[in-house]
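re: the backbone from monday

yeah here it is again, tokenized this time
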């Protein structure tokens, strides 16, 4: 039996392809970066054809390097990014509007002014925000001449990035979106698992242009013949898909209620498995579909920290106290504590659970004895404090504890920060041996369908721990420091006058 799965990991700044074996090990990797497009302040776009071409090249390279037969293909992607293309030609009618783009903020304000907040949250689990796909679709239809009329005639198709890649891979035969990505559009009812007519009417979006919502591990189609460089993949099933954060939750093996993962990237994204029923957040978190397999849907609570690894970048590029990101760890470890210094890294406001766009960064507790080492340690602590805020909100919303926090992302290599995180949360923090958990999650969903893995238990066995951190500091000491953090956040909130 073929035991190798190709995962296409289409990210915000690069396209990657990774071949995994049955043990969950990386066999080969292909990766190509691509340009970001900034037409105006706050606007972010990508060229959809470049997304496809770089992902195609990455897949070609990974398969060639591996030299093995591929059993299945899984896809994971930057979520919310919006593409509209011609059904007949496959030609995009506008650049992809990226999840980071804020151009539709005025549309969101209009929806709130009309009183749609409660309906949207109740049906979608989301809040009204330019982050999500719905208002981006409306913007393209409103601003590309003739687009709305063409969409109503069935001439145009919408898709988030996984939909676009599946459509291209199958030669235009499959126009589908998985439930996890659909749940990020602000058009999808997470209770009925289908597009919501009232939400589509609200944004004047013709439902005929929307892809078919499908499970995360299912046959979407097969790779078409004649795709340059991918000839050896012709006929291979495309049968797994999930948005990047949900794929990471799956790849980390968080299959039980109360299991959670945090990705320490530029920002931090925390997802918690809440089981088969969606839970309404009272703490500014969003409720999303994690995955749906074999008719069983799993939901997650999700929160985001705006400044995680970017805090370390600021130490390097803004303050110049380190020359490279890895230097922060030995510098921070050179002192036993932060000397009372607290850094609130609210450089672009505060995300969940505070949601204060008017907050700004604050460095408090400085004395003449403060050194750059104390500031470096305070930076690592500031990231861990923010994640603690978010996890505590999840504990309260879900009314259950978290047994272990699974971690990934570039900044998770910091042993000191992971130890601080464990001390604050009072639970184990587990870091996997293979940190490419997002790509592995997509591979696992595809491999599950074709029988490379036959159960979630087998997938969990392929998830191997590199190190687990356990609470070491006395709980009272950690709680005292955390209370100081909360005082500091109070000083940082509302700093910019409205």
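seq for it, each position gets an aa:
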């Amino acid at each position: 039996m073929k035991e190798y799965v190709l995962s296409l990991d289409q990210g915000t700044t690069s396209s990657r392809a990774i071949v995994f074996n049955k043990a969950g090990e990386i066999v080969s990797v292909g990766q190509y970066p691509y340009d970001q497009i900034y037409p105006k302040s706050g606007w972010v776009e990508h060229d959809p054809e470049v997304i496809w071409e770089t992902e195609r090249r990455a897949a070609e390279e990974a398969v060639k390097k591996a030299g093995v037969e591929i059993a299945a293909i899984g896809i994971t992607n930057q979520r919310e990014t919006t593409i509209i293309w011609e059904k007949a030609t496959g030609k995009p009618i506008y650049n992809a509007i990226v999840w980071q783009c804020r151009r539709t903020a005025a549309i969101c304000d209009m929806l709130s002014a009309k009183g749609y907040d409660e309906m949207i949250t109740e049906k979608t689990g989301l809040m009204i925000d330019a982050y999500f796909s719905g208002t981006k679709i409306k913007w393209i239809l409103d601003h590309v001449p003739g687009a709305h009329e063409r969409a109503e005639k069935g001439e145009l198709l919408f898709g988030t990035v996984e939909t676009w890649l599946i459509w291209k891979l199958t030669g235009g035969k499959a126009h589908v979106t998985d439930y996890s990505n659909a749940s990020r559009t602000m058009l999808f009812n997470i209770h009925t698992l289908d597009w919501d007519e009232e939400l589509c009417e609200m944004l004047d979006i013709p439902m005929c242009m929307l892809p078919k919502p499908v499970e995360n591990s299912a046959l979407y189609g097969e790779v078409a013949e004649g795709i340059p460089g991918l000839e050896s993949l012709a006929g291979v099933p495309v049968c797994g898909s999930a948005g990047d954060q949900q794929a990471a939750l799956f790849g980390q093996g968080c299959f039980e209620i109360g299991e959670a993962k945090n990705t320490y990237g530029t920002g931090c994204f925390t997802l918690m498995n809440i089981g088969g029923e969606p839970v309404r957040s009272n703490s500014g978190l969003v409720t999303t579909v994690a995955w749906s397999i074999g008719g069983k849907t799993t939901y997650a609570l999700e929160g985001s920290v705006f400044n995680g690894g970017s805090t370390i970048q600021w130490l390097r590029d803004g303050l110049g106290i380190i020359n490279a990101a890895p230097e922060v760890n030995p510098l921070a470890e050179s002192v036993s504590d932060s000397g009372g210094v607290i850094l609130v890294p609210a450089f672009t406001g505060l995300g969940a659970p505070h949601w204060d766009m008017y907050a700004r960064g604050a460095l408090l507790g400085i004395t003449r004895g403060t050194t750059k080492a104390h500031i470096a340690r305070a930076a690592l602590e500031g990231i861990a404090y923010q994640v603690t805020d978010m996890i505590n909100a999840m504990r309260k919303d879900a009314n259950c504890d978290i047994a272990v926090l699974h971690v990934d992302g570039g900044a998770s290599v910091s042993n000191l920060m992971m130890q601080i995180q464990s001390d604050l949360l009072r639970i184990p923090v587990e870091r996997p041996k293979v940190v490419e958990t997002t790509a592995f999650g997509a591979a696992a969903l595809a491999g599950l369908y074709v029988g490379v893995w036959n159960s979630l238990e087998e997938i969990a066995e392929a998830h191997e721990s590199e190190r687990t951190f356990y609470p070491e500091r006395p709980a009272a000491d950690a709680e005292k420091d955390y209370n100081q953090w909360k005082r500091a956040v109070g000083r940082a909130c509302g700093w910019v006058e409205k």
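The radius of gyration is 22 Å. The longest strand covers residues 296-305.
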